[in-house]
């Protein structure tokens, strides 16, 4: 048992914090130029590699994710979907050619990817995927509609999830491919710079070499959702960190009645509750990550426990931060209000908290899929 | 970072779990109904080696580490030992026994620790007073030095094991004009003239742990019964926090695991509207809430236990976070367990109502949740 990070991890965190502080992030913006600059800069710290090897780094991955998400939720989401979902999909299932073409530039921050999974609803638990590819000579022709694609317009390559010959498949479609039309970014409650959009594929042809196929559908969906859930756990930790810090600093400096408001129990005690939720979420995330690395049979259930806890705690913590900040919190932009708005996404996306609870309940009952 | 228990620890946990199921759980309900301390199980705990688990072997202990000791507490609860019984064990071994072990002379250690390990003596610790709870330093019990003895006057309140203790660690002011620096600690044995215990208090929960007042009326004890030095009392009492935030919180983790097992079984067996209630989402949700709390609490408790095993000084922030979370967030999932059982959950037959009642203490005993909030807010 070891509750502390290694020296190597701590050095990575230091390098990461330094790289983040050198980025010109303003008010949660995450335009393409900043995104690519951030990707290259963070790549040099080793941040993008975390979770892509067998090295068992998931606790450190979560710690690093928290730092990035705290700096800019939208930037984080774009980077993470690229590295930790798209990147891992290629690393796990891709052919040698695909790995060579994609992973190296990805890990150097020179290529950005994303995943197009959701169709009618943000989650795909109950409805089968409609997006389908059909072989036509050396090509695969893809048709379908996807929604809620993070950085759809900005990504260099989109892994579109669907079926091919009745099995799970990921069609790796490059930006600007004929037959792929991106919708405009949605006007979202949170992660407003994440460029979340829809896309439509009409007879979009890709070479067979650009397809990952022959996947068992349930396993593919489980894995993609798992990676998404990890990203959202990391996001929630970051939202909490940023909201808490904003409130803490304010409470220690803003005076009323001749003393800093943290001296009033209503404020100080609220901060204590916020910190308690944040630290508990961190530990749950680290343990869930470690169990996933160790391929523990409870890893899925614990990841869902961490997801429910962290995403709901992030709403509570950011909401409490707003109460402490008073009028200052109500004025945009600030991390607490951004965190409050963005926290809801974590509860809905990936495996929603409702479905997560059902799966946790099933795990407790000893039910297996 | 990694969170694995060793193979030996897991094997030991399983042994303790089976021990609790077989030897303690069958009597838990009866003792709770009667409000009685289960002495028979206590002796069995001693024979099993649990009472002295962390003390060195030369004093009758097993030399176990903190994580192993916490695992034992968790396993006992998961096996069905009730929280009152485990509170009695905790007060005996850690609040009394460990305080003596850490601060006593070698002579005092040899006199008391083997008997604490064997259960020949039952221990308690007296800090809280009728008018001094969270504000420990405002205690009024005094210890006046007079020749080769101290004379104690005052009273203590809410003392776990008070009615049955053979030995007590008692905190009293050797300097009533000072606050924390005026507190000293003493060993007082049952039967000492001027020392008595009040009748057991009637409580909402943890009924198998007998709690009472301790009364000191010109109680004379030898000067060598001073623990450590005069004025060291507050520091000693603070050290018990380390146990309070790890080993003494571990049973809550086990209690929730116990509830999960009970709820899971009941949900599969109970048929309503032609199907097991386990199939309803509302039931799965409750099971999920219990599971989430269990895992969250486990992470927090073993963070403290691990640090203590490394010999690190107590991280007061982490300790208070653990106590606050477990104390204030435990009632909702425990309430869910009662609700899941419907009418049976409201009856004593199914144990869940006992766990729910017992769980209420977590936000009060060993430092209230608001005190934890105060500590945390001062540290951030």
Description:
The complex is a heterodimer of chains A (369) and B (380). Chain A is an alpha+beta fold. Chain A is built from 11 helices and 10 strands. Chain A has 3 domains: 7-108, Butyryl-Coa Dehydrogenase, subunit A, domain 1 (Orthogonal Bundle); 113-215, Butyryl-CoA Dehydrogenase, subunit A, domain 2; 218-365, Butyryl-CoA Dehydrogenase, subunit A, domain 3. Helices cover 53% and strands 16% of the residues of chain A. In chain A, strands 1, 2, 3, 4, 5, 6, 7 and 8 form an 8-stranded mixed beta sheet that branches. The mean pLDDT of chain A is 94. By secondary structure, chain B is α+β, with helices and mostly antiparallel strands. Chain B has helices at 7-34, 39-48, 66-78, 83-103, 106-118, 233-244, 250-269, 281-309, 316-329, 331-340, 342-345, 352-359, 369-379; strands spanning 123-126, 142-146, 149-160, 167-173, 183-189, 195-197, 211-222, 226-227, 271-272, 275-276. In chain B, the strands form 3 sheets. Chain B has a 4-stranded mixed beta sheet with strand order 1-4-5-8. In chain B, a hairpin with a 2-residue loop joins strand 9 and strand 10 (275-276). The two termini of chain B are 24 Å apart. At the A-B interface, helix 7, helix 8 and helix 11 of A face helix 7, helix 8, helix 9 and helix 13 of B. Chain B: Belongs to the acyl-CoA dehydrogenase family. Chain B: Residues 124-219 form the Acyl-CoA oxidase/dehydrogenase middle domain. Chain B: Its cofactor is FAD. Chain B: Pathway: Amino-acid degradation; L-valine degradation.
Q: What would the keywords be for this entry?
A:
heterodimer, A: 369 residues, Butyryl-CoA Dehydrogenase, subunit A, domain 2, 8-stranded mixed beta sheet, two-stranded antiparallel sheet, 10 strands, 53% helix, B: 380 residues, alpha+beta, Butyryl-Coa Dehydrogenase, subunit A, domain 1, Butyryl-CoA Dehydrogenase, subunit A, domain 3, 4-stranded antiparallel beta sheet, 13 helices, 15% strand, AcylCoA_DH/oxidase_NM_dom_sf (chain A), oxidoreductase (chain A)
């Amino acid at each position: 048992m070891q509750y502390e990070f290694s020296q190597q991890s701590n050095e990575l965190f230091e390098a990461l914090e330094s790289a983040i502080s050198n980025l010109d992030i303003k008010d949660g913006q995450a335009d393409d130029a900043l995104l690519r600059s951030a990707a290259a800069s963070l790549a040099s710290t080793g941040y993008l590699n975390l979770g892509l090897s067998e090295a068992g780094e998931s606790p450190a991955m979560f710690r690093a994710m928290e730092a990035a998400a705290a700096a800019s939720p939208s930037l984080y989401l774009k980077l993470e979907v690229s590295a930790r979902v798209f990147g891992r999909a290629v690393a796990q299932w891709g052919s040698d050619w695909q790995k060579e073409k994609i992973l190296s530039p990805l890990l150097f921050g020179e290529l950005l990817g994303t995943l197009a999974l959701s169709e009618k609803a943000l989650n795909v638990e109950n409805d089968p995927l409609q997006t389908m590819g059909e072989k036509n000579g050396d090509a695969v022709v893809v048709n379908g509609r996807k929604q809620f694609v993070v950085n759809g317009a900005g990504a260099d390559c989109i892994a579109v999830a669907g079926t091919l010959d009745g099995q799970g498949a990921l069609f790796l479609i490059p930006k600007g491919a004929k037959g792929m039309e991106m919708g405009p970014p949605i006007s979202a409650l949170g992660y407003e710079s994440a460029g979340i959009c829809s896309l439509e594929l009409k007879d979009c042809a890709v070479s067979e070499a650009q397809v990952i196929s022959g996947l068992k559908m349930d396993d593919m969906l489980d894995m993609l959702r798992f990676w998404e859930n990890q990203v959202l756990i990391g996001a929630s930790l970051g939202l909490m960190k940023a909201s808490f810090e904003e409130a803490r600093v304010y409470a220690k400096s803003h005076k009323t009645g001749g003393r800093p408001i943290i001296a009033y129990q209503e404020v100080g005690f609220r901060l204590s509750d916020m910190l308690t939720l944040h630290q508990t979420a961190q530990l749950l995330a680290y343990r869930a990550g470690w169990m996933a690395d160790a391929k523990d049979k409870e890893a899925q259930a614990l990841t869902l426990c961490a997801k429910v806890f962290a995403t709901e705690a992030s709403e509570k913590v950011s909401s409490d931060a707003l109460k402490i900040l008073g009028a200052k919190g109500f004025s945009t932009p600030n991390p607490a209000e951004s965190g409050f708005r963005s926290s809801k996404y974590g509860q809905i996306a990936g495996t929603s908290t409702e479905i997560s609870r059902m799966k946790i309940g099933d795990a407790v009952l000893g039910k297996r899929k | 970072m990694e969170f694995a228990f060793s193979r030996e620890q897991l094997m030991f946990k399983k042994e303790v779990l089976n021990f609790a199921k077989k030897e303690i759980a069958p009597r838990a309900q009866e003792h709770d109904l009667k409000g009685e301390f289960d002495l028979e199980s206590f002796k069995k705990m001693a024979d099993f080696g649990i009472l002295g688990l962390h003390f060195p072997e030369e004093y009758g202990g097993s030399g176990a580490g903190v994580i192993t000791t916490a695992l034992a507490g968790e396993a006992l609860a998961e096996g069905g030992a009730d929280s009152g019984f485990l509170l009695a064990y905790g007060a005996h071994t850690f609040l009394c026994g460990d305080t003596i072990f850490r601060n006593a002379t070698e002579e005092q250690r040899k006199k008391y620790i083997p008997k604490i390990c064997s259960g020949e003596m039952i221990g308690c610790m007296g800090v809280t007073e009728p008018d001094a709870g969270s504000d420990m330093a405002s205690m009024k019990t005094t210890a006046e030095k007079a020749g080769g003895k101290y004379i104690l006057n005052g009273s203590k309140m809410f003392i776990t094991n008070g009615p049955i203790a053979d030995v007590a660690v008692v905190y009293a002011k050797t300097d009533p004009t000072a606050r924390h620096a005026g507190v000293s600690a003493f060993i007082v044995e049952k039967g000492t003239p001027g020392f008595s215990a009040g009748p057991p208090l009637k409580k909402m929960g943890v009924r198998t742990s007998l709690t009472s007042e301790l009364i000191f009326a010109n109680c004379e004890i030898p000067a060598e019964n001073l623990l450590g030095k005069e004025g060291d009392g507050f520091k000693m009492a603070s050290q018990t926090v380390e146990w309070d935030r790890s080993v003494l919180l571990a049973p809550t983790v086990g209690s929730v695991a116990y509830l999960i097992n009970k709820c899971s079984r009941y949900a599969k067996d109970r048929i309503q509207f032609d199907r097991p209630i386990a199939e309803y989402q509302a039931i799965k949700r409750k099971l999920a809430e219990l599971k989430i709390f269990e895992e969250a609490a486990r992470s927090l408790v073993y963070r403290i236990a691990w640090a203590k095993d490394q010999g690190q000084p107590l991280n007061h922030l982490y300790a208070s976070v653990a106590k606050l979370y477990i104390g204030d967030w435990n009632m909702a999932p425990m309430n869910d367990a009662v609700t899941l059982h419907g009418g049976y959950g409201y009856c004593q037959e199914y144990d869940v109502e006992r766990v729910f009642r017992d769980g209420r203490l977590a936000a009060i005993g060993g430092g209230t949740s608001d005190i934890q909030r105060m500590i945390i807010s001062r540290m951030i």
